[in-house]
Amino acid sequence: MRKAVIHVSSNGCALLVADVSDTTLTAIVDTHVLLNLGHTVATRHVIPTDVLATLVDTLRTLVAAAKENHAEAIRIVATATIRAATNRDVVVSHVTEATGVTMTVLSVTDESRYALHAASVLAAPHAGLRQGVLLETRGPKVRMLGHTYRRHVTGEAIGSRVSIRHLLTDDTHGSVPTDVVGRLAAFDDDMALVIDRQGELHIIATAMILASRVIPAHPRRAPEPAVGTKDQPVVRTAARAVIVVDNKVLLVAHHPQANRTVWTAPGGGCDKDETLTETVHREVREELGVDIHVGDILFEHVAEFAFRGVWLRQHETWFATELAGEFQPSDAPLNDAATSQVRAFSGAELLTEHATIAPHDLASRIKDLLR
Description:
The chain is α+β, with helices and mostly antiparallel strands. Helix content is 24%, strand content 38%. The model is unreliable at 137-149 (pLDDT under 50).
């Protein structure tokens, strides 16, 4: 079988097209494009817009070359440089949308496993990552996406049952595709809100959607619950981190409606089977791009509000936390949906701007930490 793999590394992009069996590999095309991505991420911690555009153009060209050489399966894998970029989800989304091939960000373990697999299978010292990926007997993990399946769901489908494949960040495997099926509760240029059969709300950034379609109601199973109204809000469990630096608390600008801004602590809803502590760690990494030390519970709070037209009743646990490293608000990746800015508030600013603070009495709740 003829396969192709493109490796995005610190130096750039490398394409290998080869005829592959279980134990042999015959290279057809082996080419490299230098981009010096490692230096960019090491100094700026992100893939800037102009560099991302160059990367996408390069990968589009290499995918085309793989197809011209009759590759039956194509994979794009990325390692340490993309793994370290705070905006890696955005990078993966743009690459996937532009090429039709999902970029997989490999963990350190997977990277080593592929290289070892190549060294152990091939008699000749071919001892690389790309060869190991091509030799993987399980075949490609992510298929190429046909144009006919991409982005069929629009705002006109609100209330319908939909299937949405999108990218989700996993601490072990990087950005991986996942599928959500449920009732489309809201949809706009920024995000899609889907309520599944268990009544859980999935907030999906539209930039992370790989493919979507409207599907018929299941003929033998009850429909998704009609929750999300003011009378029957979606019930969620959430966790937030109170981070105080130089007697100021770090808050994130959220946009529950497109024309409304609310400042609250970094955090959000718990994923399935996730503890409150795990949630607050994950949410802070997604929004601020840093790790934290989680301390005691400061208070619990029930927030009831409309998010893009969907009503939520959110049971929030607020933790005292400390940054585990250096942080600058301008470096925050803000990968969470509907977030746009990080700002440090003094106690006085919390009082004077309480109308846009959630909860409104946050100043009194954390006054001991701001002394």
